[in-house]
Amino acid sequence: MGIDSSAVVCVETSARHAAPVTSAFGGVAEYLLAVGDDDAVAFAGGGSRVTYGQLRQDVAALAASLAAIGLSRGAPVALMAANGAFWAAAYLAIMQRGLVVVPLPVVLRADEVAARTAFVGANAVIVDRRHHRLLASSGLAVITESALDASTPWSHRDDVDIDEGSDAAYLFTSGTTGSPRVVRLTHANIRANTESILGYLDIRASDRALVVLPYSYVFGASLLHTHLRVGAALVDHASAAFPETIVTELERQRCTVFAGVPSIFHALLRNSSFSSRPLPQLRIVQQAGGRLPLPLLHEFAEAQPQARIHVMYGQTEATARLSALDPELLLTKPGSIGQGIPGVSLRVVDESGRPVAPGEVGEIRARGANISPGYLGDDGATASKMPDGELRTGDLATVDDEGYIYVVDRAEDFIKSWGYRISSQDVEAAAIGLTDLVAVAAVGVPDASAGERIELVAVRRPGSTLTEDEVLAQCRGVLPRHSVPAAVHFVERLPVNANGKVLKREVRRLLEARVETEPGRDRES
Questions:
Q1: Beta strand pairing status for 233-236 and 208-211?
Q2: Secondary structure element (H or E) that encloses residue 438, with its range
Q3: Measured between alpha carbons, how far is 71 from 55 in angstroms, rounded to an integer?
Q4: Which of 42, 114, 230, 237 is the most buried (most CB within 10 A)?
Q5: CA dihedral sign, ordered 12, 16, 18, 23
Q6: Nearest CA to 300 among 320, 321, 322, 284?
Q7: Phi/psi zone of residue 394: left (φ > 0), alpha (ψ -120 to 50 degrees), beta?
Q8: Strands 415-417 and 76-80
Q9: What is the DSSP letter of 178?
Q10: What is the pLDDT of residue 19?
Q11: pLDDT tens digits for 123-181?
């Protein structure tokens, strides 16, 4: 995947590994269910298991219930359920009918559900028993798990023609830096990205993936897509809130694949037995959703040396994945997100759109069949974010002389202090070198003199007596003077969204509120 030094910033990755998207494509549901043997396990966890044969029957039964409602082709249908076989069956049934699935995080309140379904124009919802009460008075046509009682053979499903360019899903962005938007993903987008991921990630039918990420999150959905496509098993784990239970389940279920965002790996490495418990069966680890600081990457590699760690990068607007770093380069290209995956080309450009030289900072832009056609009901945002089909990621990065990309920070997360532009991720990486810290978040807080002053919010290990001065001393030993935080605030947990990603805007609000209520107080620990 190396490239000519004269074009080091445009990582053109051949699509030779990706299956071409053709007019004969039968839709995402038919595509994802084409491989798994009927008697092979598709889903496990919670003391139950569902085979591919049963999953196909459940998809057919739910599709029949949707047909009975009489929705028009392309109508949006909401989906609210916990991870598991029912979620997957509902997701696939909606798309098999030529409808558009609208996954809703299970943490939403009733008013938030109402706002989201109204925005996309959904008149129907598929919901599990646990969340039925929340939607019982929503005014939507409701389909529940009782629809599975009417067993429908997969061979008896209606044959629905699917236009590969038609919308398959509406996904709300994670909104970690601002208000969420609704991303349109087509059937062709989902298949293209699934094939791209399988072009570099060696997932096999014999694999068992432990899933803690919600399927309503694009990263979680990509796990569903790729593992169903090869006939592998997904082991659903109820929550990532208790990291020791994740380690126990990895061992008990003999899982071979695991994926997470940085906050999950922080907790595993600093607040569980993951670093000391052998997991010889674990062979593939996928990390995305933000930068995992180098100290933690090193700890992970030492804790489970048999596992191949795939550092990846993506966005909702890219159907999940844009780049990946070969695990063999984890320590020789530290901090890199790698290069474009098969079928995706990436470039890093300056404000005028010219490729940056190695070491210079620019924005990552992406092209590929996985790029969304745009946002629902927001032509202005579509034109700004995806002009001419090229995704402007909003992530700032540098490249080296071999074309490997290094994300510096989100444009919105840069801290502007005393005339310097400071990467919040650099500050966080310096602090997390202290093993008594489980998680950290650095943000800029308005300051009359500096413009913004750097403040760090940190979570300590249970029982730790680590002090603010010790954290500041660690930062001073690693960072230039202008990048050292002005204060450190210890909290029990960081604000995260339903996908486990830290909400920087909420961290800023927390600190700004402290300034307003405690005038003149510079530090608190």
A1: parallel
A2: strand 437-447
A3: 23
A4: 42
A5: positive
A6: 284
A7: left
A8: unpaired
A9: S
A10: 39
A11: 999 999 999 888 888 889 999 999 998 888 999 898 888 999 999 999 998 654 445 69
